[in-house]
Specification:
Layout (H helix, E strand, L loop, with lengths): L1 E9 L2 H26 L9 H14 L8 H23 L17 E5 L3 E4 L7 E6 L3 E6 L8 E10 L5 E9 L18 E6 L5 E3 L3 E3 L5 H15 L6 H35 L2 E6 L2 H7 L3 H7 L1 H15 L2 E6 L22 E3 L6 E3 H16 L10 H4 L8 E3 L1 H7 L13
Parallel strand pairs: 8-11, 10-15, 11-12
Antiparallel strand pairs: 1-5, 1-7, 2-6, 3-4, 4-5, 6-7, 8-9, 9-10, 13-14
Helix pairs in contact: 1-3, 2-3, 4-5, 5-8, 6-7
Length: about 425
């Protein structure tokens, strides 16, 4: 299993200058890799392996590239080809994509060392801090707020400077599967220990067993962001005052992002500890953001990030996390399957075929649960009618406020959660 730990970094002025220089040289190398690839014949595009073999020649021709650690330089080549691969995958899924662009200094803000060229010294310095050595850059102090797992292998280390001016160090780790808890056997899953989730509009999520989680209130943060952006627009571009205000705007944005991420961490952790199987819609996030006026709320939701966290924690806690096709979960009746068109403002599900009535999002969550069973090759229990699983009266739903999630770190539901492994 692969995962990562991230730490705030505090390089000295001398090391920060060296790091910024290396970032710029890596940016130049990335742009040269792109140029070499773009200007090669269409029927003879170089592979990552072939461009790695060109590195010694490029170092002789442009000595500045020789300043880089060899593994870090190879990681920069890999970075271009990873971006290229992601672009192809998006194109295959029907997205309109262009070409990879040149990276400006503002866009290229990290350098990665894999396999070698780095060391971690957690014995040096006072408690709560450690040092990481990046070859040809120097030692960087980090806030070591949590130790790396003893059974984990460090695969690579990344040094990054955020738009706020803050530095961070990230460790990519690999843990043996023997240390990961086993997921429950499929034949033990039923509606009592499984849940379907609808990623909603009026609520953050709606579960198939009748829980709704409110949106995180970020209105004050967005009002602050609007004020700071107006101030930025009045500064002379490129001036010292402009740069100071740009960092202020970046810090406000970072605060919003961190609040959303913290909220998602708390919800996803609760879900994988509470249930043996969690089913969620595989949503077209880009299409959602482009489709209507709810773009900002959906951006706050960061659905893809939410699902990624859920999958990662499912492996960590031994919980099945399965994505199911999203198409038709809102239209289809959870009881009889007949589809009924519903405009977005219609919040109730009322089936003209079987008469089943409930909340629109609750109906969708139940459809997600049923599709999840199907994805795992399990049959829906005939002895479990939909009405017994899902409260049909909205008064029977359990509403969970965002404040409760933020303050308690859970949905505060009186059920025995799975123990931490």
């Amino acid at each position: 299993m692969e995962h990562s730990h991230r730490y705030r970094a505090y390089p000295s002025d001398k090391v920060a200058m060296a790091a910024e220089h290396h970032l710029d040289v890596h940016r130049q190398l990335y742009n040269h890799v792109r140029w070499d690839y773009t200007n090669s014949p269409d029927d003879d595009k170089p592979s990552e392996y072939q461009q790695n073999n060109k590195l010694p020649e490029w170092k002789r021709k442009w000595p500045v590239f020789a300043e880089l650690h060899s593994k870090a330089a190879q990681a920069t080549v890999a970075r271009f080809h990873d971006n290229l691969s992601n672009l192809r995958k998006k194109k295959e899924k029907g997205y309109k994509v262009g070409r990879l662009k040149r990276q400006s200094p503002a866009e290229y803000r990290s350098v990665t060392y894999n396999q070698s060229g780095f060391d971690l010294d957690n014995k040096r310095g006072r408690d709560g801090y450690a040092y990481v050595r990046f070859s040809k850059i120097g030692w960087v102090k980090i806030r070591y707020h949590r130790s790396l797992p003893e059974n984990a292998t460090i695969k690579e280390v990344t040094l990054k400077k955020e738009t706020t001016g803050e530095w961070f160090v990230s460790f990519s780790l690999e843990t043996d599967d023997e240390h990961i808890p086993e997921k429950p056997a499929l034949d033990t899953l039923d509606v009592s220990n499984s849940v379907g989730i609808d990623l909603g509009i009026l609520n953050y999520i709606h579960t198939s067993d009748g829980k709704t989680v409110d949106w995180l209130d970020l209105e004050d943060e967005y009002e602050r962001l609007r004020r700071e952006q107006r101030k930025l627009s009045r500064k002379e571009h490129g001036s010292n005052n402009y740069e100071k205000q740009r960092q202020t705007v970046a810090k406000v944005k970072r605060k919003i992002q961190r609040k959303v991420l913290d909220y998602q961490h708390k919800i996803t952790t609760w879900l994988v500890r509470e249930y043996d199987a969690v089913f969620v819609e595989d949503l077209d996030v880009a299409g959602m953001l482009q489709g209507d006026g709810n773009a900002r709320n959906k951006q706050d939701a960061a659905w893809r990030q939410f699902i990624t966290l859920l999958e990662y924690k499912g492996d960590l806690y031994g919980t099945h996390v399965v994505q199911v096709p999203a198409r038709g979960t809102t239209k289809g009746c959870a009881k009889c399957g007949v589809e009924t068109a519903k405009p977005v403002w219609v919040r109730e599900h009322s089936c003209p075929s079987c008469g089943f009535e409930t909340d629109r999002d609750a109906n969708a969550a139940m459809n997600v649960l049923q599709r999840g069973f199907s994805e795992l090759g399990l049959e829906w229990p005939e002895s479990t009618p939909v009405e017994t699983v899902l409260p049909t009266d909205t008064a029977g739903f359990q509403r969970v406020s965002a404040k409760r999630v933020v303050e308690s770190g859970s949905l505060g539901v009186d059920r025995e959660s799975k123990a931490l492994s």
